[in-house]
Amino acid sequence: MKKHKDSRRPLTKEFWIFSGIVLFLFLLFGWRQFYGFNKNDEIFYISTVYRFFQGDGMLVDEWNNVQLFAFVTYPLYGLARLFCHGNDGIVLTFRIFYLVFQVFVSGYCFCQLKRFGWIRMIPALFYFVTTPYNINSLNYNTLAFGFVLLAFVTISSTEKPGILDFLLCGFFAAGAVLANPYAVLLFFLYGILCALTSLFYLHRWEKVPAQLQIKNFFWIGAGAFLIFVLFLFFVFKRSSLSEILECLTYIVMDTERKKSFAEKLLKYFIRIHRYYKAEVYLTGCLIAVWIADRKKKIPPSLYLLLSALTAVPYMVYYGFFWDMVGINYVLIPLAFPGFTAYLVSERKDRLLFFGWYLPGLFYTLLAHFATNTGILTVSASCMISSAASMLLLLEAVKEQGKIRWLSCLTGVLLAVQFAACIYQRIFFVWGDESLTDLTQELTKGPLKGIHTCEENKVLYEEVLLDLEELELTKEDKLFVTGIAPWIYLSTEAECAAYSTWETMETDPLIPVYYELRPEKLPTIIYCYEKEEEILDTEFAESFLQMGYEPLLMRRGTALLRH
Question: pTM score, two decimals?
């Protein structure tokens, strides 16, 4: 009998190297997940999912305008609750979920980018060492960046993607839109481009690249539509269309988004110019010189040299010496050399440039329109285009042949970028004291297993004692004033606020919410870190007149309805 040859391809050396690095980083970042008590942002993402798990209706009971991302994280929360009857340790669990998500995205990028050879490891690992604000949680930022990156990689990884690739791209596009609704503009613009290309090549369809064929755009739409159907089922299972329309006006309220389009657009460029002047001016000069040099006498290596030398100081400064969220700022400098590299390359990788790099830059603009955090979100979202920039730069260097100094400079550039990201990922702490001060372990509640500073531990334990004294049950409805979403996770009581994010006693939406959702009227109001003076406010007076009784506690004042 003839022996059948094993059709499976042996695992390559680069696969094992990549897997080893990912495993090392997973363990390193896994250790880091045990440190830092972020009282606001991180726990808000989990508390939003928690209220839906308790039965609240999306777009009706919750009025925060970023809530759609919870549709993606809801199954993960449900999975966690299969093994745990309460929220003890849920923050640490979600941090591990985020690391697993990063492994998936990084691994997918590595597998898809086969045409780039061993250098495909670089952008895949680059994604793994970054995270916006160093908030290690699945949220609208991390989900949007991950899904957008997956979509761009799928589109630009091969000349002839198949139907499955386009369906997957549709899934990723839907995930990105749920995390950041502004991302839908990428989908529509892509569809318009496909339609125009098909009209231009009306009788020469065989010349249209697969990525621009209208039939393949419909496959992307089919993938996105499937997620959309599941989303509609999730929403309308608990809410009616009339209820959603009634609440929609209040959901979209946002003073930052009320600024004019021109103002937001102008601020985008002003902010980039403010923090990266040298790179902006140099890139402009290089473009002008390249255009003027019609005979191309200036060697491409000189362009690459100047672009790389200008980027390195920014990486060093923002990566190691900048105190204000350097983990975000350090992601922009590498985006500039990619444009220069594409410009001077003879064999231009148009698929990479137009399918990933430029759309990635455009997404930073969409991220800017979707938020009020300015350069922080712009720089964080620049991870997507900077990952493509790495490939463009490495391809350009390879094209120049064996220019040793250029290869060494590129290696230094990438090494500094990775070192800065890993340094920030380990040592920058968002919302807590420095890493060396996080010596106190929390032993119960949603932050069980997390290490924080002594002051935060005292605060956390005293609030838990207050909640135990209040004896909250599933039948109670809890309203917390201030920014303390972690308190909602510390009890089984139903959330009685229009958002777990920030509900100050002066918020004009509070009475509106109870007028539209009277069944949400709280049984207990916990005025977080508020002294007795809170009872003299108009907010407290309105509830006291309804028969609520005040109770002074360790960390605040409570109003109880009997």
Answer: 0.94
**DSSP conformational letter for 12:** P
What pLDDT does residue 5 have? Answer: 46
Q: DSSP letters of 49-73?
A: HHHHHTTPPTTTT---TTGGGHHHH
- Over residues 234-248, mean pLDDT: 94
Torsion sign over Cα 93, 95, 101, 107: negative
CB 444 within 8 A of CB 86: no
The DSSP code sequence of 158-187 is -SS--HHHHHHHHHHHHHHHHH-GGGHHHH
- Can you list the pairs that 68-72 forms with residues at least 24 positions away whose Cβ atoms lie under 8 Å? 68/140, 68/178, 68/179, 68/181, 68/231, 69/45, 69/138, 69/139, 69/140, 69/143, 69/144, 69/178, 69/179, 70/45, 71/178, 71/231, 71/234, 72/138, 72/143, 72/175, 72/178, 72/179
Which residue pairs from 418-422 have beta carbons closer than 8 angstroms and sit at least 24 positions apart in sequence?
Answer: 418/125, 418/126, 418/129, 419/319, 420/315, 420/316, 420/318, 420/319, 420/320, 420/326, 420/330, 421/126, 421/129, 421/130, 421/319, 421/327, 421/330, 421/331, 422/25, 422/28, 422/129
- pLDDT tens for 454-486 read 999 999 999 999 999 999 999 999 999 988 999
Beta bridge partners of 318: none
Give tens-digit pLDDT for 315-330.
999 999 998 899 999 9
- Mean per-residue pLDDT, 533-561: 93
d(CA 466, CA 555): 7
What residues contact 513, with CB distance under 8 A and at least 6 apart? 63, 250, 497, 498, 520
How many angstroms separate the CA atoms of 69 and 48, rounded? 9
Please report where in the chains the tokens 């040592």 appear, as a residue: 427
To which residue do tokens 């870190």 refer?
529
SS3 525: strand
